[in-house]
Amino acid sequence: MGLSPRPESRLVETTSNEPWITTKLDAFVNWGRKNSLWPMPFGTACCAIEFMATAASKYDLARFGMERQAFSPRQADLLICAGRVPFKLAPVLRRIWQQMPQPKWCISMGACASTGGMFDNYAVVQGIDSIIPVDVYVPGCPPRPEGLLYGIMMLQKKVENERSSDKSLRNEMEPDPETQLYIPPSVIDEVSEPFGNSIHQTRSGL
Amino acid sequence: MTEVNNDGSFAPVVAGSALGVDAPAPVTPKNLPHRGGEPNPSVDAMRRQFGAAVRRVDVVWGETTVVIDPARVHDVIRWLHDNPLERYDYLSDITAVEFRDLEQPLELVWHLRSLPYRRFLRVKALIARGAPLEVPTVWDIYKGADWLERECYDMFGIRFIGHPDLRRLLMWEQYAEGFPLRKDFPLRGRFSRSEQLRQALAANPEARYSKDELSIAEAFEDLPADMRRRLTTGERTGE
Is the pTM of this model over 0.90? Predict the structure, then answer.
């Protein structure tokens, strides 16, 4: 504010005594966006139960402008992936993400969606960020509703600070046509190395 | 539960109806011995009918397990289902057990329940190490065996001879890493994480349906034209 020249009087007709203010377009658009996020729950496990508690009357997600839950990706802004994602579901989750129109954001809710959690096995994706881009990770197993609300408020701050001059924000990420991955395969292998107790479970002993 | 009458109508099966009107009300048994309790009364009849095909009978916590000759599985289960004095009309589960012990055979397990007689029977067949993993299907006796046998095939690689549509059930059809519940299967699978992800993402989510599936076959005419074409030509993207 203050950098743009004061509008000429012929641009803004002030015949009445109604008050008016000036603001940045970014601030105005982001204010609107962050207070009217339409979430789409992608619930696969117990995290979805906590999501339902968050959306219900006690925690009341509607206070944050999420009155309308979208159960179709085409009318959604925010994908909340709540629960573990098996490999069989990976192409489904990616297609749902690709069906969402820009601008769109993603929250990975809980340990399983973020890292695979305790399911370090043959069937579960080790973090949905290897399939789709993620904005906010909410830790917990499952996270309490307060945790999810905190993650949503973090996302709202992120939305608030977006700049429309940054065109790359709205670029659709295209996966590598050969491997269908966003991240180089070596990086995926490196970050999904076993840790903790699970290093003893790699081989079955036979 | 229902059973089909001669004229094609369905009649409800009342639990305990074969026990007679003056049978005592069922109670939860108490103070059961760990091993060697009262065996299921079907066991004596099975011994009379099948002789040496009944190899062993265990009673653990009041539940009877009958180990039978794998070659007679279909006969025994057919008899248990059809005999008016047994009437095992409900198949709870089909599963398998593999042990880490390299000598111990792989066990196949059928959980049968007789609602009219209020009986539960566990039938097992042992498959020796090195023998082909094959048993006859019981799909022609219990239609509910369809998915149970598919799951067992998916997880253990056991082929149910005579099953009409023996495909993977839980893992996708293009899954190439083997049979996850076998003891020689590494917990994380055989491929690297990136390779697993690549193969999973290369699959078309809609390609998992086949025209042979009953639910698809019934709704076939209502499907979109492109899906009908793909199902008719057997096209499977991602395979």
Answer: no
Contact at CB, A87 and B200, closer than 8 angstroms: yes
Within 165-224 of B, beta carbons closer than 8 Å to A belong to: 170-172, 177, 180, 183-189, 192-205
Contact between B68 and B123 under an 8 Å Cβ cutoff? The reply is yes
> A-B interface: how many C-beta pairs under 8 angstroms?
86
What is this model's ipTM? 0.78
CB neighbour list of residue B219: distance below 8 Å, 6 or more residues apart: none
Domains of chain A: which residue ranges? 35-162+175-188
CATH number, domain at B122? 3.30.460.80
Residues of B in contact with A189 (CB under 8 A): 192-194
Q: What is the pLDDT of residues A29-60, one digit of tens each?
A: 999 999 999 999 999 999 999 999 999 999 99
* Residue B223 per-residue DSSP state: S
Q: Which fold has domain A35-162+175-188?
A: Rossmann fold (3.40.50)
Instruction: Quote the CA–CA distance of A189 and B191 in Å, as a whole number.
Output: 10
Residue B59 placed within a domain: yes
